[in-house]
Write a structure and sequence with these properties.
Length: 591
């Protein structure tokens, strides 16, 4: 093993060997010294030894053990592991010689005492295999110096008894050497495996860090691209609304309708990106309550039934009367995405929605007879922008974000989602929900903004650093009957207020402005100048998690670019003419 190691790897292994050697020597030295004290005390009590020699033997043994322990205390200097290992081996040789030659100094001519000594010696030798087994030279040195003198002395006695004892001693030594080698090999293998695991863990950590950095870079890119793309689409959306006049000619009406469809498609993409950013930022709160699953599934089935009929599909719903514990808004979003995925990728046959009781859980299942998904691709479909059957990126086949949102939402709710599918045999998505123990059902509230109403006749101050967005807002708001003040910053609006008799009833402010000014501070400044809390709406095209967190924490009504005119009218209608109404609960996702 050592020959295949680099110098750095051998040093790491050597450091571990010597560290284990010093660690084990603490216990082994205490045990050996205790045995030496007890054996010496027995001999002195029997008055069969010379007290002077016993004292010399005892002091030399104690000195060898003390040297080993002292060397271990200096061990933290790990750059000299080789020197430490061989110094330790030297002390081991001294200790072994003291035990091996003890009968020459202190043992009387008594067979019983000599055999007691040999038995104790062999026990200490066996313990040395464990104590010094991490460094084979130290272990072999102790075995040789502790048993070889005894073996030679036995052979020199010239009688059958000692010859047999010498043979048994050799056999035991041979066994201990084999055990020492195996112990050393196992130690090296364990250390090598630990180092390999540490190396693998470090590689995994680096890969995880790289993945997190790539994910953060992707989020920053999406945030920047989302903001920059939302600005012109935001203006285009408001201009489309402004041009939708009742007496428009039919050709122009068709053109405006096509523009509206394109804007709606872009809005759908931006909403999906926003959903993922909100989930990654931790902005989606979970509000668990008892929910009757039957009405929820019926509503979703009614929503998709006409779409299935248009494709020639049959939508089958198996009713369920159980109540589950979940967030109804988030669960509805998961199920809507799963059903939409089944309908979108099924060309013939049917889509089945049903439930199955599984102990204390309810498995809500969406089956389809589509083309199916190979086992190797099933994990990919939950990734962003992954569409197996849409290589041409046909927008009519979706964006590839629905199942990515499902994966995040299921993790947030702790509702596991499973996929069973095979090519040519359709797919089955299953989500497991905890069954509620009570029989009560609290109706889900989507927390949507109030229904749109007219609400015209107000003075609305629009603060946006992009001239195109300001002009588009002016055209749309004036068409709704409002008076509009346009400004590119808080300073511009304050200057206008000093020269006009109008005082804004509502502030409509972009989040990102020039010179590092943001909409939150801009609204606070204008409110301070006016002296009362003017109702305000914050508009943002950002999807960066930190900016979303800051915008959510402001307590302002938050709308995302491009603004759907109906949502803006609903937000304006939610304000009372005098003071700002209590903030309504924003839906966790755009409608």
């Amino acid at each position: 093993m050592a020959t295949s190691m680099s110098l750095a790897e051998r040093d790491r292994v050597g450091i571990e060997q010597v560290a284990a050697l010093h660690h084990n020597a603490r216990v082994a030295s205490v045990c050996a010294f205790s045995a030496q004290v007890i054996f010496t005390a027995i001999l002195l009590r029997l008055r069969v030894i010379d007290e002077g020699r016993a004292a010399v033997w005892f002091v030399l043994g104690a000195a060898a053990i003390a040297g080993q322990l002292a060397l271990g205390r200096r061990w933290p200097s790990r750059q000299v592991w080789r020197r430490s290992a061989w110094w330790f081996t030297g002390y081991t040789v001294l200790e072994g010689l003291l035990w091996g030659c003890a009968f020459l100094f202190i043992l009387p001519d008594n067979v019983g005492i000599r055999m007691l000594y040999v038995s104790m010696l062999l026990g200490i030798a066996a313990g040395a295999v464990v104590a010094f087994g991490s460094f084979l030279p130290a272990c072999l040195a102790f075995l040789a110096t502790a048993t070889l003198p005894c073996f030679i002395w036995m052979l020199l006695q010239g009688n059958t008894f000692y010859d047999g004892a010498a043979l048994l001693l050799v056999l035991l030594d041979f066994t201990l050497v084999i055990m020492a080698r195996d112990n050393d090999a196992r130690f090296l293998a364990a250390v090598g495996l630990r180092f390999a695991n540490e190396t693998l863990a470090e590689k995994l950590r680096l890969q995880r860090d790289a993945a997190e950095q790539a994910d953060a870079a992707k989020s920053r890119f999406l945030a920047a691209a989302s903001h920059d793309l939302r600005q012109p689409v935001h203006a285009l959306s408001m201009l489309t609304e402004a041009f939708s006049i009742p007496d428009m000619s039919e050709p122009n009406r068709r053109v405006v309708a096509l523009i509206g469809q394109s804007v709606a498609a872009l809005d759908k993409l931006f909403d999906a990106l926003l959903d993922i950013s909100r989930l990654d930022a931790g902005l989606v709160s979970v509000r668990r309550q008892p929910v009757a699953i039957g009405p929820l599934l019926s509503r979703l089935a009614d929503e998709f039934r006409l779409i299935c009929q248009a494709k020639g599909l049959r939508l089958v719903l198996h009713p369920c009367c159980l109540i589950v514990e979940t967030d109804p808004v988030l669960l509805e979003r998961i199920l809507r995405n799963l059903i939409d995925n089944g309908v979108r990728y099924t060309d013939r046959g049917r889509v089945v929605i049903g439930c199955r009781r599984e102990g204390l859980a309810l498995s809500v299942q969406v089956w389809d007879t589509g083309s199916g998904i190979a086992a190797a691709d099933q994990a990919r479909v939950f990734q962003e922008f992954e569409q197996l059957h849409n290589p041409e990126r046909d927008r009519a086949k979706g964006l590839g974000l629905g199942l990515a949102i499902v994966r995040r939402l299921s993790a947030l709710l702790d509702h596991p989602v499973e996929l069973r599918s095979a090519p040519g045999r359709g797919s089955c998505f299953r989500i497991r929900l905890p069954v509620c123990a009570t029989g009560l059902c609290v109706e889900a509230s989507a927390g949507a903004l109030p229904a749109p109403s007219g609400g015209g006749g107000r003075c609305i101050a629009v603060i946006d650093d992009e001239a195109a967005a300001r002009e588009a807002a002016r055209h749309m708001l004036e068409r709704w009957g409002h008076t509009v003040l346009l400004a590119g910053s808080a300073d511009e609006l304050v200057a206008q207020l000093a020269e006009t008799v109008h005082s804004p009833d509502v502030l409509l402010c972009d989040y990102r402005l020039r010179d590092d000014e943001n909409g939150i501070s801009c609204i606070a400044r204008v409110r301070a100048i006016l002296g009362h809390p003017v109702p305000a709406i914050l508009i943002t095209g950002d999807t960066a998690p930190d900016r979303l967190l800051e915008a959510e924490a402001s307590g302002l009504i938050l709308l995302h670019k491009p603004i759907v005119p109906g949502r803006l009218r609903a937000a304006l209608a939610s304000f009372t003419p005098v003071a700002e109404a209590e903030p309504v609960r924003q839906p966790p996702f755009a409608a």
